[in-house]
Amino acid sequence: MKIYDAVVVGGGAAGLFCAGQIALKNKSVALIEKNEKVGRKLLITGKGRCNVTNLCDKNELIDSLTKNKKFMYSAFSMFNAYDTFDFFESKGVPLKVERGNRVFPVSDKAVDIVDCLYNFVKEQKVNIINNTAVDFEAENGMINAVLLDSGEKVNCKNVVIATGGKSYPKTGSTGDGYRFAEKFGHTIIKPIGSLVPVNTDEGLAAMCQGLSLKNTAIKVEDTKSNKIVYTDFGEMLFTHFGLSGPMILSASAHMREKGNSRYKIHIDLKPALDSQKLDNRILRDFAENSNKILSNSLTKLLPFKIIPAIIKYSGLKPDLVVNQITKEQREALVSSLKDFCFTVTCLRDVSEAIVTSGGVDCNEIEPKTMRSKKVNNLYFAGEVIDVDAYTGGFNLQIAFSTAYAAANAI
């Protein structure tokens, strides 16, 4: 009867990396993946380019976390972003560093990262079992087998749950790991979407649907506390339901408190110009277009698609002739460009989120080993744990670091 030193449940980034690292130490490993192929979610990360990590130091990695920062200190100390970078390059996948220290494969193809991890586990003779883990067999407080949907039993000395969260369920992330953890007495922090688009209620976003902006600034206001809870500068996207894009996804991590229209997102469309300089710029444009109507006079200043929404928001009429615009009306336009405000009605569903916030309670996991405090031979890795971070490669680094910690302990 074959008894594996470890069985890893889940063939995503954390599961693949963990299985390979365990096998690297001459341990026998089985990897159970319910999809026909491993790494399905990895294939769609970074818009199919795979933002594999963020090349920064340990302290910056810690700062990227939205909660449970102390929990990740040991894991990031053992395996950091530079280690991840070196791992993939040593396996023949050249990487590049882009804006914000985001790391991508030079090829811009996520499949290269997936293939690298797949080849890594195959080289280490990990047995990949394409089946669904449905239960565990335990005796004397220790897991001794993983039971499969096919009726088979995989005997083992250790188990790593690396099943992901609940985001992108079509890739296989359906929350199985939470059920497994609960079976052994673990507390599950309610999973919600993090790095998720937001719904807004003004209808203005739909007018700009499909428009992507760069070099834009945002502030997120909590109207209950009257405090700014997040600021950012970068890219965003208007959708038919509201707002999305990198800045908005990161901002969503700070909008978890429930409340009717509690949060407002203030967009500065011209952050490089203060109000006076922006007014001067508009005056110059108006001078060149004095006989045109307002909607046709802003094309040098703004993308065409956003002009009707800005004019509506400012309370002006689009057919107003430029030479008839008063100082007060111009000030209203400047104010709108510097503070294009949207009320967030709710976050989009967790199924649309890049990552899941919530999962196995960190207080019940040993931070140096990722071992369960409930079951001595049970470990966790990746998104199933209640740790998440901003967009920019940080969440995949969490996956690699926690996987390494678990593998090293086993």
Folded structure, characterized:
It is a single chain. The chain has 410 residues and is of the alpha+beta class. The chain folds into two domains: 3-193 and 355-409, FAD/NAD(P)-binding domain, CATH 3.50.50.60; 197-348, Helicase, Ruva Protein, domain 3, CATH 1.10.8.50. The chain contains twelve helices and 20 strands. It has helices spanning 13-23, 58-64, 73-78, 81-90, 110-123, 176-183, 204-207, 246-252, 275-288, 307-314, 327-338, 394-409; strands at residues 3-4, 6-9, 29-33, 53-54, 95-98, 102-105, 127-130, 133-139, 142-148, 153-156, 159-161, 188-194, 198-200, 212-222, 227-238, 242-244, 263-268, 340-347, 355-360, 378-380. Strands 13-16-15-14-17-18 form a six-stranded antiparallel beta barrel. The mean pLDDT is 92.
The description of the largest β-sheet is: 6 strands, antiparallel, barrel
- The CATH superfamily name of the largest domain is FAD/NAD(P)-binding domain
CATH class of the largest domain: Alpha Beta
Q: How much helix is in the residues?
A: 25-40%
Rg, Cα atoms, Å: 25 Å
Distance between the termini: 21 Å
Question: How many distinct folded domains?
Answer: 2
The total of beta strands comes to 20
In round numbers, the mean pLDDT is: 92
Strand order of the largest sheet: 13-16-15-14-17-18
Q: Using the alpha-carbon principal axes, give the shape.
A: elongated
Structural class: alpha+beta
Count of DSSP H/I helices = 12
CATH architecture of the largest domain: 3-Layer(bba) Sandwich
